[in-house]
Amino acid sequence: MGFDWKKLQNGSDIRGVALEGIANQAVNLDEDVVARLAMAFYKWLQKENPNKTKLTVAVGMDSRISGPALKKAFVDAMINQGAEVLDCGMASTPAMFMTCITKPYEAHGAVMLTASHLPFNRNGLKFFTPKGGLEKANITEILEIAKQGTETANAVGGELKEVPFIDLYSSILVEKIRCEVNDVSNFEKPLSGFKIILDAGNGAGGFYANKVLEVLGANIEGSQFLDPDGRFPNHIPNPEDQYAMASICKAVKENKADLGIIFDTDVDRSAIVDEQGNPVNRNELVALSAAIVNEEHPGSVIVTDSITSDGLAWFINDHLHAKHHRFKRGYKNVINESVRLNEAGKESWLAIETSGHAALKENYFLDDGAYLVTKILIKMARLKKEGKRLTSLIEKLPRPVESKEYRIKIETEDFKTYGDKVISELGLYAASLAKWNLAPDNYEGVRVSCEAENQKGWFLLRLSLHDPVIPLNIESDIEGGVDAIAEKLLEFLKKYEFLNLIALENR
Question: Can you tell me the distance from the alpha carbon of 334 to that of 358, in angstroms, rounded to the nearest whole number?
Answer without folding.
Answer: 9
